[in-house]
Write a structure and sequence with these properties.
The protein is built from six helices and no strands. The protein is globular, with a radius of gyration of 18 Å.
Length: 123
């Protein structure tokens, strides 16, 4: 860590996974971390994050993320979602970096830049 600062530039996904693993292990929660339970928890936390943007138009939703009145709560909900993703990856032993890059490669083939730049359309 640079100067003891923890941020996206200084912490790896593996370090986050290990931190989540320690958190779970210290509380002896492994028995509760069945994929079914983790996915349901992920859905709940995602819904809690969604609540912060419910009924807002696009521009309002962009502003909400920068509004100090809401930013901390949004940040905490996003962290909760991420913790569930990390716990699920740990439980299923899925390498997130490999999964993300493989999915991006698949999506790049499905949505070529020349056809989809600046727009989205379903096939």
């Amino acid at each position: 860590m640079e100067n003891g600062i923890m941020n996206d530039c200084t912490i790896t996904i593996m370090e986050l996974r290990r931190a989540m693993e320690r958190f779970v292990s210290e509380r002896e929660w492994q028995r509760y971390h069945a994929p079914k339970n983790l996915v349901m928890g992920l859905a709940i936390e995602t819904a809690e994050l969604m609540e912060h943007f419910l009924w807002l138009d696009v521009e309002e939703s962009r502003q909400r993320g920068n509004d100090p009145q809401y930013r901390q709560a949004i940040t905490e909900e996003l962290a909760d979602v991420t913790c569930y993703v990390l716990a699920l990856a740990n439980t299923l032993q899925i390498d997130l970096s490999q999964a993300v890059f493989a999915k991006l490669e698949k999506n790049a083939a499905k949505y070529p830049v020349e056809r989809y730049r600046g727009r989205f359309e379903s096939d």
